[in-house]
Amino acid sequence: MCRWLAYSGTPILLDELLYKPRYSLIDQSMHSRLGVETTNGDGVGVGWYEPSDQPVPALFRGTGPAWGDVNLRELARVTRSGLFLAHIRASTGTPVQQTNCHPFRYGRWLWCHNGAIHDFRELRRDLMLAIDPDLFPSVAGSTDSEVMFYLALTFGLRDDPLRAVERMAGFVEQVARAHGVASPLQMTVGATDGDRVWAFRYSSEGKSRTLSFSTALTALRALHPDMELLRGLSEETRLVVSEPLGELAGAWNEVPESSYGVVQKGDDELGAFTPR
After folding, report:
1. pLDDT-derived band at 39, boundaries 50, 70, 90
2. Which of 9, 33, 48, 132 is the Cys-Cys partner for 154 at CB 3.0 to 4.6 Å?
3. Structural domains in the chain?
4. For residue range 54-78, what is the model confidence (pLDDT) as tens digits?
5. Is it the case that residue 194 has pLDDT exceeding 90?
6. Cross-strand bridge partners of residue 262
């Protein structure tokens, strides 16, 4: 399985989250505490929007272990963004190659995934045949995660992200049933169009991988008034993470089982996720 994070808020340097926290994403690539695998060394990627009005987000993906990627370290040291998605990969059987590294990108959209479609090789043909023919040429890799992304795009991700991902999940389960595959889907997903961030936590067996979001900044400042970093961030700043980046009291809230969340300007959303 994998680890990922999504950040939305006051522009910060990428290394503030990728490297500096006690349990940073790069630390999790070697010492994951809550993942299925302790080590996530099969690739790394980050996509970001800066300037925020650029038509296509920037994307860096490398096939080596995140802890040894000197190019990522240099990039993170000087790159500032108010919205980015980062991912460290542990392969579930597909090759370690750049096109299989997350985030995946289509137009302004970025997508990353932790989990798996069980027995994906058996289901892969039927799933891929359902992808919109106009989108199909853009599929570049061989992962179940990328297929999920293009199915979600096929089912309307750009117009109604919640319904599109619910339809994607329902379709995967429908195809799996036809092949006699029980409990096929395990996922936490992060997706963004550069404006809002969507997060999804779901599994067919009802035992999903971990996913948390950060507490509102006003509450964090009240709990930890001496933390200088918190003073420089806007009230809109939020983090969604596979695994908390530290043990700061009151900082993290678990996303409930079978739920989705939206980080956006104004009030965020949290609701039930139901495959269709």
Report:
1. confident
2. 132
3. 3-114+189-272 (3.60.20.10)
4. 789 999 999 999 999 999 999 999 9
5. yes
6. 198, 269
Please list, in sequence order, all residues whose beta carbon lies within 8 angstroms of the beta carbon of residue 202, skipping any fewer than 6 positions away.
169, 185, 187, 188, 208, 257, 258, 259, 273, 275
Measuring CA to CA, how many Å separate 100 from each of 89, 158, 242, 260? 9, 22, 19, 25
Residue owning tokens 């989250």: 17
Q: What are the structure tokens assigned to 80, written together? A: 């500032």
- How many residues comprise the chain? 276
